[in-house]
Write a structure and sequence with these properties.
318 residues, alpha/beta, four-stranded parallel beta sheet, binds threonylcarbamoyladenylate, binds magnesium ion, 15 strands
């Protein structure tokens, strides 16, 4: 049985005790729900991979309550300091070389000499990370390859009974995973687009390259097929068939068997927040209705749209 905890003092203390004991605790962040474990305990980290069914070559992000805590485990340069000051706590992950005294277990880093670190937003989560006093490794709290969870119910649908506890902090504010920026070479590389856009990052540290074809080696989690619903997904739909479900953005195309609206008014932040819940909902209702395909209306590629389209492309590749 998975224990459901509320973000009260008692709930946070309990979650902290479980983490210290090496157990798995899922919690909400501003991006998506994470599946947390003490990153310094090899067995606890191994349990994350087992619960998710995740390929072990995929490294995890370590979460901290502050930049100074994060920078104890990695070698931060001027660029990292600048970005941390501007965007932390917030939906940005930095990949940096590990520090000699790095506490994060090799298994969480998938044997790499680099580490992804992040300081997430959220009062309850911050309190939990402070109480833990350890780096907390946390991938998204879904079965490997499945759509990321943005509500407590999504976590339970994938992992109930497989994890010790779930800290229910409500719906996630952003709805898409953090932007991942690799700072291990002179030219920074955006490995995963997210709510902190490339433009916003470039305004702080100058030119940033986009992850190219070779990036699957550097960010093994960025497999083409990821975030996959079980129904087929058709992108940039300009019409919809009667036997299709529609993922609408703005005024919906007429004629679909089933409609999920990302944002009636075409608001990208609202669409990002709704995206994964929508894919999960259509997957579940579509199967009941005998639908085989989700037709997704086009979303503009500006701002947050780049991250939304990235996730849609991956979901379509699954
Ligand atoms: O918003 C988020 O980042 C959420 C919440 C829970 O914090 N976490 C998340 O974790 O999305 P996950 O494991 O689903 O994605 C982590 C991504 C993967 O694509 C992984 O390959 C990449 O970060 N990554 C982790 N460590 C890395 C490293 N040392 N070098 C390059 N990429 C790394
Ligand atoms: Mg994930």
């Amino acid at each position: 049985m998975t224990e459901i905890l509320t973000p009260t003092d008692a709930g946070i203390v309990r979650a902290g005790e479980l983490l210290a004991a090496g157990a798995l605790v899922a919690f909400g962040t501003e991006t998506v729900y994470g599946l947390g474990a003490d990153a310094s305990q090899g067995a606890a980290v191994a349990a994350i991979y087992a619960a998710k069914g995740r390929p072990q070559f995929n490294p995890l992000i370590a979460h901290y309550p502050s930049a100074s805590a994060a920078f104890a485990d990695v070698c931060a340069d001027v660029r990292a300091e600048k970005l941390a000051a501007k965007f932390w706590p917030g939906p940005l992950t930095l990949v940096l070389p590990i520090a000699p005294a790095c506490r994060v277990h090799e298994l969480a880093r998938a044997g790499l000499s680099t580490l992804a670190v992040r300081v997430p937003k959220g009062e309850a989560l911050q309190a939990l990370l402070r109480a833990a006093g350890r780096p907390i490794a946390a991938p998204s709290a879904n079965r490997s390859g499945h759509v990321s969870p943005t509500e407590a119910a999504h976590v339970l649908a994938d992992l109930d009974g497989k994890i010790a506890a779930l800290l229910d902090t409500g719906r996630c504010e952003v709805g898409l995973e953090s932007s991942v920026l690799d700072l291990t070479s002179p030219m920074p590389v955006l490995l995963r687009p997210g709510a902190i856009t490339r433009d916003a990052l470039q305004a702080e540290i100058g030119e940033i390259a986009l992850a190219g074809a070779g990036s699957s080696v550097r960010a093994p989690g960025m497999l083409a097929s990821h975030y996959a619903p079980s129904l087929k997904l058709r992108l940039c739909a300009e019409q919809v068939a009667q036997d299709e479900a529609l993922l609408a953005f703005g005024p919906p195309l007429a004629g679909a068997a089933l409609v999920f609206q990302l944002s009636e008014t075409g608001n990208l932040a609202e669409a990002a927040q709704n995206l994964f819940a929508g894919l999960r909902w259509l997957d579940c209702k579509g199967e009941e209705a005998g639908v085989q395909t989700i037709a997704a209306m086009p979303v503009p590629d500006s701002g947050l749209g780049a991250a939304i389209n990235d996730r849609l492309r991956r979901a379509a590749a699954g």
